[in-house]
Design goal:
Length: about 475
């Protein structure tokens, strides 16, 4: 039964091949894709029963080159998050991509990306994670350059350069790690922490190299500029990049590396977390300041993502239980909030073809459902009680205080104010400003787009009002690692 954990990885890949070689009409293709992503979630639900037990060595050449998959609580948390949001994105994409064109090619790489992201989730060692991490770059590249314009190709090149540059740093750290440990398997507490009298300089080099490498996909400043550039992609792709697949895979990889390879004790002894926290503080503040200066709706959300990812990274480097819970919780909360915000912006673009904040005055009266969902998600991202954003930021603030660093809660507070300054003007422009005279009245987006927007907004609200089940699950992970 161990081989069941291979199905969520290779079933979407098989589905992508079927889509590529068979000639389906639109209805057949859409039916196949939505059936596939729902079946994938069912398969992951089945895997719940094997938590901590199922593992498969798919291919083992030696201790270094070992394609190994394993189920643990971290992989379950990440795979469920990805799979649920992928279903909503699929429904949304079926309608949205009609005006983007090249739908068949989009759904081939869209489905393939799901399988690769599952490979990252269930990777049992660093080399397996690295291979699927690289495959993720290759699978999402055609999605970034989907429109084929000069700007899209330029953004795609930047995406590849940054991603492969980060991967080179990861490979360097991985080779150093293997030279010391002869083992790359993920072990709670870390591999390096079990080595007596280790060379702390080498340990520090391993940590920094891999943190910066994985930090590229996590939009760590100064490696963040590929992310706003990728906004030329269709909105469903932006949602995948910013909320689900790419940036969250970067965050997930950083958690694996920090707590399952290096180990919290080694990071503290080398003071590696202090060095990385400088980059993270800059990321949080710079992302917010840059978002303030963007008039384009998608670019404002893009720089917001840079800032919010810094919150999650802060939770990783503070190295205490409260911060870790806050970081993982914000990984989930940011995913559901940001995908809703992008869906709302996509609905505005689809219906009105407007992309700038100054163009959406009074649109709240014409698209009330879309803009109310945007407003609720904005309040959640700011962190106003009792939203889900407040819950995760509360834990992050507690983590900062537990570490004796009052500066970090202060930075979170400043960033929350900046988040309000760049999101609330969009809401006020939509609801409290009048549109231009003679402007054509628009209606809400089609139901295939509106239902996912409303559904995920409900999830956003529920995660704020009833956070305890998720917090309890994350605390179980934290107990194993701290």
């Amino acid at each position: 039964m161990n081989t069941i954990i291979l199905l969520p990885i290779f079933f979407p890949a098989f589905l992508a091949v079927v889509l590529a070689v068979m000639n389906f009409n639109e209805k057949e293709r859409n039916g196949l894709v939505i059936t596939g992503v729902i079946l994938n979630l069912i398969l992951i639900n089945r895997i719940f029963h094997f938590s901590g037990e199922a593992n498969v060595h798919l291919f083992k050449f030696n201790e270094f080159l070992d394609i190994y998959f394993k189920v643990d609580k971290m992989s379950i948390l990440f795979s469920v998050l990805v799979s649920v949001l992928w279903i909503f994105t699929t429904f949304y994409s079926m309608e949205y991509m009609k005006h983007e064109g090249k739908e068949d090619r989009f759904f081939i790489f869209f489905t393939l990306t799901l399988g690769i992201t599952m490979g990252i989730a269930f990777a049992g060692n660093l080399i397996t994670l690295y291979i699927f991490y690289e495959l993720l770059t290759l699978a999402t590249f055609p999605l970034v350059i989907h429109s084929g314009t000069k700007q899209a190709l330029k953004s795609g090149r930047k995406y590849l350069i940054y991603s492969f540059g980060g991967a080179t740093l990861v490979l360097l750290g991985m080779i150093l790690c293997y030279s010391v440990t002869k083992n790359l398997n993920f072990i709670p507490g870390g591999i390096l922490s079990g080595i007596q009298n280790g060379n702390m300089k080498i340990f520090l080099a391993i940590y920094i190299s891999m943190f910066l490498g994985f930090g590229v996909k996590s939009a760590l400043v100064p490696f963040h500029s590929w992310l706003p550039g990728a906004m030329v992609a269709p909105t469903p792709v932006s949602s995948l990049l910013h909320a689900v697949a790419v940036v969250k895979s970067g965050v997930f990889a950083l958690i694996r590396m920090s707590y399952f390879v290096v180990g919290a004790d080694v990071i503290k002894d080398t003071k590696g977390n202090i060095y990385m926290s400088i980059f993270i503080v800059i990321t949080i503040l710079l992302g917010s300041f840059l978002a303030l200066h963007q008039e384009n709706l998608k670019k404002r959300l893009a720089y917001s993502t840079v800032s919010q990812l810094g919150y999650i990274l802060l939770g990783i480097v503070l190295l205490n239980k409260e911060a870790f819970v806050g970081g993982l919780l914000h990984m989930i909360n940011h995913a559901v909030i940001k995908i809703t915000l992008f869906f709302c912006v996509g609905a505005i673009m689809y219906t009105t073809h407007k992309t700038e904040i100054g163009q959406i005055k009074g649109i709240g009266k014409q698209m009330p459902i879309t803009m109310w969902c945007f407003a609720i998600s904005s309040i959640s991202l700011i962190g106003i009680p009792p939203s889900n954003g407040f819950v995760s930021k509360w834990y992050l603030a507690l983590g900062g205080l537990s570490a004796g660093k009052i500066l970090f809660p202060a930075i979170l507070l400043v960033s929350a104010v900046l988040t309000a300054l760049y999101l609330l003007p969009i809401v006020t422009a939509a609801f409290f400003k009048k549109g231009e005279e003679g402007e054509i009245t628009v209606k809400e987006a089609p139901m295939k787009m509106l239902v996912p927007i409303v559904s995920i907004t409900v999830i956003v609200v529920c995660l704020g009002l009833f956070p305890n089940p998720v917090i309890s699950f994350i605390e179980e992970i934290a107990v194993e690692l701290m």
